[in-house]
Design brief:
Length: 180
């Protein structure tokens, strides 16, 4: 992933606004915190923003800052720290492959290479058919099923699905039958 530059993607998400229902949800979360401490709601609000807008452009992050009454930089520093927030457009399926020790020992490298070749993309790119983005993430707490990955549909609210003991054959089957 390239470094984040606040001004580079200003053409995306011009004037973002939550739907009425999402805005109510966000205001409810913010109301749990005392005046002046709205920043404490940043993680759930960022998750809602990503579900609504697909990824975290600078305009979306500025909108979140405005809702929380904090400076944009305070949102940038959180959103760029956690790999679950996408800083560039992503495909319908974001394949978040674990790259931490136990998964690497059990063949994560082979899985990365196989996926890149099969889908014709490098990490963080979107495949030509718009279906896939591959991301490298840290331990998914499923080391017993290494190598593994998690997937969340852009349109789903925070539901991740885990796939463990991955092999190239298993990936072929998932691409053909499940991630469609
Ligand atoms: S190291 Fe991959 S899930 Fe823990």
């Amino acid at each position: 992933m390239g470094a984040f530059h606040a001004n580079k993607d200003r053409q995306y998400h011009q004037n973002p606004q939550f739907s009425e229902q999402r805005l109510k949800e966000v205001q409810e979360i913010i109301s749990h915190y005392p005046e002046g401490k709205q920043k404490s709601a940043i993680l759930p609000v960022l998750h809602i923003a990503q579900t609504e807008f697909g990824w975290m452009s600078a305009n979306v992050m500025d909108y979140v800052a405005q809702l929380l009454n904090i400076k944009p930089i305070e949102v940038y520093e959180v959103a760029t720290f956690y790999t679950m927030f996408h800083l560039e457009p992503v495909g319908k399926y974001v394949l978040e492959v674990c790259r931490t020790g136990p998964c690497m020992i059990c063949g994560a490298d082979e899985i990365f290479e196989y996926l890149k070749k099969k889908l014709g993309v490098e990490l963080n790119e979107v495949s030509a058919d718009g279906r896939f983005t591959i991301k490298a993430v840290e331990c998914l707490a499923a080391c017993g099923g290494a190598p593994c990955l998690q997937v969340k549909l852009k349109s789903e609210d925070g539901i991740y699905k885990y796939y463990e003991n991955l092999t190239p054959e298993k990936i072929d089957e998932l691409i053909e039958k499940e991630w469609i």
